[in-house]
Write a structure and sequence with these properties.
By secondary structure, the chain is mostly helical. It is about 80% helix and about 0% strand. The longest helix is centred in the middle third of the chain and has 30 residues.
């Protein structure tokens, strides 16, 4: 456990010391929140869907955690390039502990980033329907972070250069985000799109956040929790397998 804690703490300190990264990572969520939240708000209200800021804020929080956690895999490529990964892999400790520490560190930083964006949403006018549900919301935020930090580890373990990682991210992260229902309701979609959204793990994370924060759910809280826990376990297992096969 000391190895896991040390690597978790390293990821956390590296994030907290990079103030530019903390501030810059707020840019895209703010754009979606302010530009879409206030820009599409009147259209959303005229369609009888209610306040769009209330609807889109959980989606923006989920998006922030998605991007922050999955891009933690970039750190794996940097460590490979500068030799730190080789130093940790030759240490007399199980690789699964190294992978667990890195993944949990990435998930923690993503959770912090999501909390910052949730605070910005509150400033912008978002209000949870029940403040007691915020605790359940944090559980969903943590599960989203673990799922996609593990996915970032899988991808980072399989690739050897930054160019390849960026290519995969552009063809993976954006579809995951846009198909999750973060920006639009999942009801009354075409049949093909309905199937795809049900295969997207982030759909269940965003739906769970909406259930916890604004009392709206498409799949149901129990389904959201079950799917996220199952996917997290699967991705962690695959991440451990991929990490154990890294050749430096």
């Amino acid at each position: 456990m000391a190895v896991v804690f040390a690597l978790w703490l390293r990821e956390l300190k590296r994030y907290l010391r990079s103030r530019a990264q903390v501030v810059a990572s707020l840019g895209q969520p703010l754009m979606y929140l302010l530009a879409l939240g206030f820009g599409l708000g009147p259209v959303f209200e005229k369609a009888g869907q209610g306040d769009y800021i209330q609807f889109v804020s959980p989606g923006v929080v989920g998006m922030t955690i998605l991007f922050s956690s999955i891009f933690s895999g970039v750190g794996l490529l940097w460590d490979r390039q500068f030799g730190f990964l080789k130093e940790t892999l030759v240490a007399p400790v199980p690789r699964i502990q190294i992978m667990a520490g890195r993944t949990l560190g990435g998930a923690t930083t993503a959770l912090i980033q999501g909390t910052l964006v949730l605070t910005v949403c509150l400033i912008a006018g978002f209000r949870p329907h029940d403040w007691g549900g915020v605790l359940l919301g944090f559980l969903f935020m943590a599960l989203i972070a673990v799922v996609f930090a593990a996915l970032g580890t899988i991808i980072g373990s399989a690739l050897r250069d930054m160019q390849g990682f960026q290519l995969v991210m552009n063809f993976l992260v954006m579809p995951i985000f846009f198909l999750s229902g973060a920006l639009y309701p999942l009801s009354n979609l075409p049949a093909a799109l309905t199937v795809v959204t049900r295969l997207d793990p982030l759909s269940y994370g965003v739906d769970g956040l909406r259930a916890a924060l604004i009392g709206q759910s498409h799949f149901g809280v129990a389904t959201d929790l079950a799917v996220l826990v199952a996917v997290a376990a699967l991705f962690l297992a695959l991440g451990a397998r991929a990490f154990s096969r890294i050749q430096v």
